[in-house]
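Researcher: I'd like a structural prediction for the single chain below. Treat it as a standalone chain; there are no partners to consider.
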Amino acid sequence: MPRFSVIIPVYNKEKQLSNTIESVIKQRFEDFELIVVNDGATDTSEAIIKSFHRSKNTLH
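Model: Treating it as a single chain, here is the predicted structure.
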């Protein structure tokens, strides 16, 4: 079980989303889970989230 959770709610934040996720992933502390919640975004936020899961295999 991770020591803590980072939760990122997303609603049409495609411009900031990649930087936000990268910032969390690059932290030195590694005992965490990252939860990204798509709250019905109508922009490309979902595709960005999925690209991290596919290409970096860091999001589940």
